[in-house]
Structures are given as structure tokens and as C-alpha cells.
Amino acid sequence: MAAEVLFDAPGPKTVARHRIYTIVAVVALLVLVAYAVKRLYDAGQFEYALWEPFVTPNIMRAIGEAWLDTLTMAVLAVLGALVFGLVFGIGKLSDRKPVRWVSWLVVEFFRAVPVIMLMIFSFYAIFNSMSIEDGAYWSVVLSLTVYNGAVLAEVFRAGVNAVPRGQAEAAYAIGMRKSQVMNVILLPQAVKIMIPAIISQMVVALKDTSLILIVFGVGLTKILKSLPLSFNNIVPTTIVISGLYVITNLALTYLATRAQKRFVGEKEMLQVSNVAEPVSNVA
Q1: What digits encode the pLDDT tens for the residues 64-74?
Q2: Can you give the pTM of this predicted structure?
């Protein structure tokens, strides 16, 4: 009902105008892509010798292993960031001033420091006793955990604050403690608000695993750094690795969107059942 009141459906002229804009944008994009492809073709970047490594079994196996390393780094970083963000996001909502200020300081510090600087510091200061590849791997995980966790802390805080204040006041009125109000009342409702931002941050974490290329190649960046040295095919390698990142992000977005729709649907069904139950009791 609110959407119908606040949004006027476009008329025939507006719909036709939007279609024209869409067609023009698509045509312009196709022209740019065709121009780029022609430039690459003229430069000999589509010669079979440059693309042959990607159908070689050993290199395909290496790419698969590197892809798996990238996925595991991203998954570990996202899981750690969710825990980090939840702890410090709730800490910023604490009634205790020291907890609130410490949480604010930690979150603002890690949000402000560039991820690549965190990776370099972690690589040389924390994981320098490991092998180069292992140190690079865990420096990526740690840096992405604290950076994305700091961002998610603000997401959690904003999500909780977005829940109508009357929800918490009603819970306090029936004698619930603050921890109960947070865990039972506020967080479950805030999750629906936070899911789009969490999905976006998961995609960011996956893409940022490539930044370790500055220090040492690990995961897909290892292939991007080493393969062109042997085959002099930097453009094909970049296209293939970029395509793998795009495919992974699209799959991640699709799965997360499906999970969001299912979660929202279950929440709405639960709300309907909660409303219907008192009505049936009255009847």
C-alpha cells in the first residue's frame, strides 16, 4: 500500500522514453565492447598460442587450486568479519561508556586504514615466521576480517537502530533484560534490514583478496602473476582471472539473494501466523 501511495506508475510516454534510453545505452555498450575486441584482435591477443595454456591440464589444475584458495580466503574472512562486526557493533550500542568508546575506536581505526596497508603490515609484522605463501594467505584473511568486520559493525549498529524503538520498549516493559532484548527482539528483526549490506560486503571481501598481489601472489593472483612470465599472455590471463571473479561474485550474489528471499518469506509467514493466532483465539 505504501509503495502505491509514494510511487506513481509511469505513463506510456515515460515507458517509451525509458525503453529508448535503454536501447541507446545497450547499443553504446556494444559499440565499446566491439571496439575493445577489435583493438585486442589487431594486437594479436586472440592468437591460439596465448590461450592454449588455459586448456592445458596442469595449468587448469593449478587455476582450480588457486580458485579454491581464493574462495577459502574469502569465506574465512567473511565468517571472521561477521563475528568481529557483531561483537563491536553491539559494543557500540553498550550502556557502558568504556565499552562503547573502545568499540568506536577499534571500528573507526580499521575502517580508516587501507586494506593493502593492513595486508603489508600483517605480512611483515605478524606472519613473517611462516613461509611466504602461507604468510600471504593469512595476512589476507586477517586484514579482510578486521576491515570488513569494522564495516559490518556499522551495519549491525545501523540495523539494530532501524528497528522501531517501541519493540525494545515493549520488551523492557515485560521485564526482559537488555541481552534478551538484543538477542530475541532486535537482532532477528535487524537481520532482514542488514542482509543487502552484508551481501555487498561479502562481494567486496572476495574481490579484495586480489590486493595481496602487491606483496605476493596467492590464490588467483598467483596465476595472474606467474603465468604471463612464462607465456607472455598478460591480457588473456587478466581476462580469464577477471572472468572467474565475475562468475564467483554472480554465484555468490545469486545464492545470497535466494537466501534473503527465503528468509524474508519465512519472517512474513511467521508474522502472519502470530497475528492470526490471537484473532482465532478471540473468535
Answers
A1: 988 898 889 88
A2: 0.74
